[in-house]
Write a structure and sequence with these properties.
100 residues, alpha+beta, Gyrase A, domain 2, Putative pterin-4-alpha-carbinolamine dehydratase, Pterin_deHydtase, 4-alpha-hydroxytetrahydrobiopterin dehydratase activity, lyase, EC 4.2.1.96
Amino acid sequence: MTYELLEPDEVGKELAKLEGWELSADGLFIRKSFKFRSFAEAFGFMTECALAAEKLDHHPDWSNSYSRVEVKLTTHARKQLTDRDFRLAALMDEAWARRL
């Protein structure tokens, strides 16, 4: 599996394309909190994102508490951010937007 490693300036450019995502202090992951109207809606979001993650072969660190989903993305195999983190983040944002 190949991953496109991103330099810090590239990370900044990719992060600027996303809304609400934050870079960790150490620069190793991005994170976002998604809020939904219900548990079922949050779970539906997670299901859709899980299928997208499988297709990308790139899986999030996440947790769910009722109507909130907390997400952290990093590329564990490379121990830094890659193109896949930002691709999955964009897919998650699209899935979230469909539920507004």
